[in-house]
């Protein structure tokens, strides 16, 4: 049995961290569903920037949209929604079979809105309505302003993938925002069955510290953070507050392990996957890592309910001079900045390609 199937049977969803038109057109995504138990996917500005700028698959559609007067963000979101609604339709049977628990795809609001709560809510609602798919998440970063948007969007019934979470504190703040949104719906007599996932990024912790700590600690921080957040996730599900919401019909905001591609060339190419196996969670996997795990991955048991030895490991990093709270803030800020840069590169690539195609026509 493939390791990907073992994870699926354990109860962890495997989502592909990639989307391109070529993946859809070639049948590769469908093959990943059939052969590697992939049950959803995520996207971000960097993924789309690479997909559109390095492929000719979008040229005809870009030409058509430019001729109709589309440009900039409007043109991009039209292209992105074409891909993601097709992917959502591919995963719809999974979504229905799991009673809405799985089979999702994700589209991010403009990264320029990371610190704009009102703008994020408006964009999330507009994109969600335009997609018109029950299994499409809108991604909003878990910044302070993002959490305001998460509460408002949840209260409005928009399914949200909370992104750019880097620590237990950030996870708890986003989970609180989600529950506040559900509580507002209950108070208004509305259904609290509004789905969400919370995406905690892991490998970037190790990328930032691998050359700053003793070898015995190298590549241990990301997994320890994941274990700590998993304990917090389970604690929330066991809390009186969540049980009350569940009694009204709410479904858990599932924990999603993101950034699980190995950054350290000296480490295993499937370092994070087997180590983060846990039921009722999600692991979103870069394509290269998915193929590697299907080929030679192994499970290392399941994540312990209590986080195992994560606190000991985290304390070892503090003793080694790593300010974990500051690093979490830096990683989130750097992540938002990187997405901003990818966004600008994406819009520039679309504008340039549109001009080239117009001249060639």
Give a brief rundown of this model.
57% of the residues lie in helices and 11% in strands. It has 17 helices and eight strands. It starts with a helix and ends with a helix.
Describe this structure in words.
The chain has an 8-stranded parallel β-sheet. The protein has 361 residues and is of the alpha/beta class. The chain is globular and about 65 Å long. The protein has helices at 3-10, 21-25, 28-36, 45-53, 59-67, 72-90, 92-97, 117-131, 144-155, 168-187, 203-209, 221-238, 240-247, 271-275, 287-296, 310-319, 324-360; strands spanning 13-16, 38-41, 105-108, 136-141, 160-165, 196-201, 254-258, 281-285. Helix content is 57%, strand content 11%. It contains 17 helices and 8 strands.
Overall average residue pLDDT: 95
Order of helices and strands: HEHHEHHHHEHEHEHEHHHEHEHHH
The main sheet orders its strands as: 2-1-8-7-6-5-4-3
Q: Distance N terminus to C terminus?
A: 52 Å
Percent in helix: 55-70%
**Could you tell me the radius of gyration in angstroms?**
20 Å
What oligomeric state do these chains adopt? single chain
Task: Give the biggest beta sheet.
Answer: 8 strands, parallel
Shape: globular
Residue stretches low in confidence (pLDDT < 50, at least 5 long) are: none
- Tally of separate helices: 17
Task: Work out the strand percent.
Answer: 5-15%
